Amino acid sequence: MPDTLKPRDVKDVEAAVQWAIGESKSLEIVGHGTKRVLGRPAQVDATLDMSALAGVTLYEPEELVLSAKAGTPLAQIEELIAASGQQLAFEPIDYGPLLGGPSGHATIGGVLAANVSGPRRIKAGAARDHFLGVNAVSGRGEIFKSGGRVVKNVTGYDLCKLLAGSWGTLAAMTDVTVKTLPRPETEQTLVVFGLDDAAAARAMSAALGAAVDVSGAAHFPAGVAARLLSGEARAATALRLEGVAPSVAHRIAALGALMKPFGTPVAVGPLASRTLWREIRDATPFATSGPSGDRPVWRISTAPLRGHEVASTIRKATDAELFYDWGGGLVWVALAKMDDAGAALVRRAVAAVGGHATLVRASAALRASAGSFNAEPGGLAALTKRVKESFDPQGVLGPGRMWAGV
Fold it and tell me: Are 116 and 93 contacting, i.e. CB atoms less than 8 angstroms apart?
């Protein structure tokens, strides 16, 4: 067998996994490889390239459902559903530029396997919340299916939710079904300037708690704001509203009044708003082509009102650039170069307030030594290992991709 296997259909995938089992080989599952360097470096014998399994197999706009082969480019899906006035509401991040690759190359299978999302997660949830059905091949070399083409379709275990975020270590997905939703007619963003991180957290909390249906809440300290807002020298706090034009206009006025105690807000129109939130989604300030392109990058998830505390602890110990999404609950951090990519510092800061941290960008050696994902506590680690053994008893699929020995 060659080092790269490129199946054409589910039977080819089944045969490839059964070969790996029979020969005691391991496989790395990839689509277009945009997230290949995220996680512990994979020690595998061959690559299972799913890119030939591409194409939309069903799209029913009136039913808000789409099915596609796992290697279908995300850009193709987004273009198709946009023509019907729809979108993937979880707003999946494009990791390409952040990890040194091209933009627009992600596949729908990779998006679901990594359970990615963007700024709208605070309103719409993550990829797994829109994942309705799957056909896949387990590490046992067995074809299975779960879910279907409607929202309420699961009896027993919802394996879609389990596979989302498993990074290809449990099964090779071949066909997936996702929920689509109407695309907002328009959007506007309200920006408040000059807040420190703690005040911004309070402002975003107030906005998210109000009856104005905020769909994006982010804060950028001055250095990052300058890259996102055309040289703006002050810190900026951005709040997005989406919907039909009269509703957005009414809610912008109400949100502006609510933000008055924090400063005088400035409204940003639809085109500039879409550009801004796309750059927030993709962590563009820390892309490899930018000034922070050679720094280790961490993605920290915590309680929204505690994010600035994590950031403060990190900043006191080392040089760091950062910005906040999800109302302060998601902190993107680009650190100065450190022997362990800042793993001890970041994880100590997160442990003090609760949450988890993912090492998104670092050298292979640092990802192997520091680990990309949080170590799980004993009981959860044992459960994770049992799940892995149930789906993949011989460790054929991506062994050690998430945690050593799993």
Answer: yes
Asked whether residue 41 falls in the same domain as residue 140, the answer is: yes
Range of the domain at 167: 1-183+375-406
Do 78 and 102 sit in the same domain of this protein? yes
Q: What is the largest CA-CA distance in the chain?
A: 67
Within a 13 Å sphere around the CA of 389, how many CA atoms are in the beta-carbon half? 7
Question: How confident is the model over 307-355, as pLDDT tens digits?
Answer: 999 999 999 999 999 999 999 999 999 998 888 999 999 999 999 999 9
| Domain end among 245, 262, 281 | 281
HSE-up (13 A, CA, CB side) for residue 366: 20
Q: What is the DSSP letter of 97?
A: G
Whether residues 236 and 270 share a domain: the answer is yes
Residues 34 and 79 in one domain: yes
**Type of residue at 291:** P
213 CB neighbour count, 10 Å cutoff: 14
Residues 58 and 161 occupy one common structural domain? yes
Burial of 3 (0-12, 13-18, 19+ CB in 10 A): exposed
Does residue 288 sit in helix, strand or coil?
coil
Specify the number of domains making up the chain: 3
pLDDT in tens, 36-88: 999 998 789 999 999 999 999 999 999 999 999 999 999 999 999 999 999 99
Q: Tokens for 227?
A: 């890259």
Q: What is the pTM of this model?
A: 0.94
Token pair of 3, please?
Answer: 């080092």
* Domain end (from 281, 304, 337): 281
| Site of tokens 């924090």 | 262
Tokens of 264: 């005088």
CA-nearest of 191, 183, 181 to 272 is 191
**Residue linked to tokens 């995938």:** 13
Q: Rounded distance, CA 41 to CA 399, Å?
A: 10
Q: Please write the tens of the pLDDT for every residue from 161-211.
A: 999 999 999 999 999 999 999 999 999 999 999 999 999 999 999 999 999
Q: Give the DSSP H or E segment for 27.
A: strand 27-30
Tell me what pLDDT residue 337 has: 85
| d(C-alpha 201, C-alpha 218), whole Å | 9
Alpha-carbon distance of 170 to 387, in angstroms, equals 8
Compute the residue count for the chain: 406
The reply to whether 23 and 36 lie within a common domain is yes
**pLDDT tens digit sequence for 343-391:** 999 999 999 999 999 999 999 999 999 999 998 999 999 999 999 999 9
